[in-house]
Amino acid sequence: MGCGTSCSTKDRKSEKVFISHGSAALKAALIIQNWYRGYSARLKARQRYALTIFQSIEYADEQGQLQLSKFFSFMLENYTHIHEKDPELVARLFGSTLQDCKDRQEYVSCIDVPDSYNGPRLQFPLTFTDIDILLEAFKQQQILHAHYVLEVLFETKKVLKQMPNFTHVKTSPSKEITICGDLHGKLDDLFLIFYKNGLPSGSNSYIFNGDFVDRGKHSMEILMILFVSFLVYPNDLHLNRGNHEDFMMNLRYGFTKEILHKYKMHGKKILQILEDVYTWLPIGTIIDNEILIIHGGISESTDLNLLHRIERNKMKSVLMPPIPLDEDHDTDLKTKVGATIIPREVKTNGSLSEQLTKHEWEQVINILWSDPRGKRGCYPNKSRGGGCYFGPDITSKVLNKYQLKMLIRSHECKPEGYEICHGGKVVTVFSASNYYEEGSNRGAYIKLCCDMTPRFFQYQVTRTTCSRPLYQRVNAIESSAIRILKERMISRKTALIRAFQLQDHSKSGKLSMAQWAFSMENILGLDLPWRSLSSHLVTTDKNGNINYMSSFQDIHIQKPVKEAQSTLIETLYRYRSDLQIIFNVIDTDHSGLISMEEFRAMWKLFSSHYSIPIDDFQVDELAERMDLNKDGSIDFNEFLKAFYVVHKLDKLSKSDSNLP
Amino acid sequence: MSSTKHFMEISQEIIASEYHKKIKDAFEVFDHEANNTVDVREIGTIIRSLGCCPSEGELHDLIAEVEEEEPTGYIRFEKFLPVMTEVLLERRYRPIPEDTLLRAFEVLDPSKRGFLTKEELIKYMTEEGEPFSQEEMEEMLSAAIDPESNSIHYKDYIAMMVVDDS
Q1: Where would you tag: which of A171, B8, B47, B156 has the fewest CB atoms within 10 A of its CB?
Q2: What ipTM was predicted for this assembly?
């Protein structure tokens, strides 16, 4: 090996440095390329790990959500025992929140649009100009007045009611159809789609495959644009229900909060009507009798004929499974409940016939919640806690049974915005780019026409005009993911420490990597690459052993009240989302307040069902302290907001970004 | 002494078993369909994420070892695991130390200006050694190039990347 000859070493005044391509340059280039490829691969792996964290926690949360439904069933079965004084409690929970629901005239006419209102004004019957007006207004960050929101919702419900459970659509050589997946309140993505692909019209058909709302900040705007477009072009804009078109999901995942924030006076009315509109959204779309478009997936028992027939509007929420109808229970319930429960639509007796059968309900859950996987067969979807995992054999079986060729679904975030699996028979399309974090994923949509192969279009919304280099984006995603993972850890701190200590026989404060990873996976219930993540979560000593307490050093839960015990705080923090939902459900007039009695009753039930060993007395004490104005009622939002995690190393202690 | 040998064997087993778990973790993150296979195009990323730095040629050979007899475009975990375990146990494809990297840049900058121009970097990376694809080149430039001088001050660049990578 020698240095290549070079003129420049002798002649420093040369303007152009010329190095002949000798073997030294070759080797140098090889070294740099090799190093760079290694670095770049590790960056990509880190990005993938971060996404895995986001996804695992997202699904674990959904699982928590679905478990809540068991709690509600439990409550119903036990209500007479816990609170004889308040038989209305459960009636309120399961009965109609529309008890004093007036019809449309009353609602809309009693809300005036003041002259001073500068936002968009819609004119009924709606035309394409109204779509333009809305788009322009939302680009300027304006808010649509509640009067119009309610009119749109009522009109939408009226039209949706006429539609069957599955919309059958035909394409033609001159008429393609565009299919979009989850939007989750990301308005910029919808704008981008319309910009790239054109507005919906008689010659530009769209299908929006569910999950329009929750998580993003502009769910209301998206919903309004979609509903208005639907009203203008009911035969060319198709909406499928997603698992987030569910008022209980909205309670946890942010849409309810968005509505109550944007519509301080009329938000409750909007929420009430919205609950109903959701139930009328079609279950799916079928194109050219060949392609099935549904939000989640299928199961081996999926019965499309049954699904065509059921009364879809009886599917209120995934958290409200049909009340079990066994013999004794039935009569028991009917006497206690039949008279007082007023189900959503019908006010008379026979309340229990106003729900779907268990079988029908499960069929719908599977459609909205299932995920495809490579493994053959059909298994319960244990990450989400609802629906199932279905394999390529299930896809073939079900598609063949109904002479279909392809299934297009959404429901799962994919790095490229779409993914094809099961030998091309299942396509996932996801339209919310940067879903978890800026740079986390692309969004996509599909264009279909007749017998031609589907075409995929990808995009990514960037806030800044020039995108940041990859390593910065990965750093951002990674720190965000690690942050929520740490918050998860601290919400189970007691259980984690107990598990660690059990294995730490010598009480050294250290564990091997294998021991640590085992406990983490066991207690947190998250299937993550713990070994690779360990460097972000704990410190290790020079022998490679884990100092397991080091995770808890720079993070703690803010105590709302000094004397409160840390286990209580931890438990309340961990269940805060569930509690928020329960309280919101009790609080039927959406006042934000519940009485001390209701709080106590609810807490007793909750702790007994979830086997939480917390002293009732402590909770009472805490609640009394939270009742700041001593009037016997608790502002539960304030109560729950008081529990948040402080990251000591943050300059600003920000509360959990996932708190709805 | 046989007891020492025995002890070493057990340690080796424990190490191998930890490596197995590490490899499994890295593999699973790319196993989208949860059926113990990954796309062959991700194998390079997986291997490198485990701390190894094979050249493209070495990577090519590794892939040949783990592929099916009739390549399917997918690599199965059962074939990947033993090969990768050996790689880790033998400490093959060690990463480039920082000063070797620095010297490499210095070879390309014989007049010791302390930087390479954008054009020079592109030329070397896309014409020499195992050339970069356009995507790889753009990616490297986006982080490496100082937009004001349109050059890469390699010492600073290396320092920044090394911190980020650790």
Answers
A1: B8
A2: 0.91
| Closest CA in chain B for residue A24 | B107
* Average of per-residue pLDDT across A26-54: 90
Q: E strands within B49-126? A: 74-76, 116-117
Let me know if A241 is exposed, middle or buried by CB neighbors in 10 A (0-12, 13-18, 19+). Answer: buried
The pLDDT value recorded for residue A331 is 42
DSSP state of B146: B
Whole-angstrom distance, CA of residue A136 vs CA of residue A143: 11
Task: Say what the pLDDT of residue A79 is.
Answer: 52
* A29:B125 CB<8 A: yes
Residue of B45, B46, B107 with shortest CB distance to A24: B107
Q: Look at B105 and A28 and tell me if their CB atoms are within 8 Å.
A: yes
Please, are residues A373 and B34 in contact by the beta-carbon 8 Å criterion?
yes
| Confidence grade of residue A97 (pLDDT, cut at 50, 70, 90) | very low
Q: What distance in Å separates the CA atoms of residue A362 and residue A253, rounded to the nearest whole number?
A: 22
CA distance B64 to chain A (A): 19
pLDDT of residue A557: 78
Give Cα A560 to chain centroid, integer Å.
Answer: 28
H-type alpha helices, A356-434: 358-369, 392-401
B37 at interface of A, judged by CB pairs closer than 8 A: yes
On whether the CB atoms of residues A519 and A538 are closer than 8 A, the answer is no
Enumerate the H helices of A313-463 as residue ranges. Answer: 327-333, 358-369, 392-401
Q: Phi and psi (nearest 5°) for B118?
A: -60, -45
Percent of chain B with pLDDT over 90: 43
Angle, helix B98-108 to helix B154-165, in steps of 10 degrees:
150
Q: Domains in chain A, please, with CATH?
A: 96-111+121-322+357-459 (3.60.21.10), 469-555+648-658 (1.10.238.10), 561-642 (1.10.238)
* pLDDT at res. A96: 43
Give yes or no for B30 touching A (CB within 8 A): yes
- Judged against a pLDDT cut of 90, whether residue A104 lies above it is answered with no
pTM for the model: 0.75
Residues pairing with A371 in the sheet: A389
Report the residue from A27, A35, A472 with minimal CB separation from B53: A35
Q: Out of B21, B54, B110, name the one closest to residue A531 (CB).
A: B21
Closest C-alpha to A284, from A404, A418, A376: A404
- A380's enclosing H/E stretch is strand A378-380
Alpha-helical segments (H) within A286-353: 304-309, 327-333
pLDDT of residue A88: 55
Active centre residues of A (catalytic): 244
- Count of A–B CB contacts within 8 Å? 148
- Average of per-residue pLDDT across A418-422: 93
Pairing of strands A177-180, A443-448: antiparallel
Cβ distance of A29 and B110 shorter than 8 Å? no
A318 with A368: CB under 8 angstroms?
A: yes
pLDDT surpasses 90 at A142: yes
- CA-nearest of A416, A489, A539, A444 to A47 is A416
Q: Does A32 touch chain B (CB under 8 A)?
A: yes
**Å between B79 CA and nearest CA of chain A:** 18
Residue A327 has pLDDT above 50, yes or no: no
Which segment of A90-94, A310-314, A470-474 scores lowest on mean pLDDT? A90-94
Contacts of A373 in chain B (CB under 8 A): 33-35
| Region of poorest pLDDT, from A142-156, A179-193, A563-577 | A563-577
Relative to beta strand A443-448, strand A205-208 is unpaired
A436 DSSP 8-state letter: S
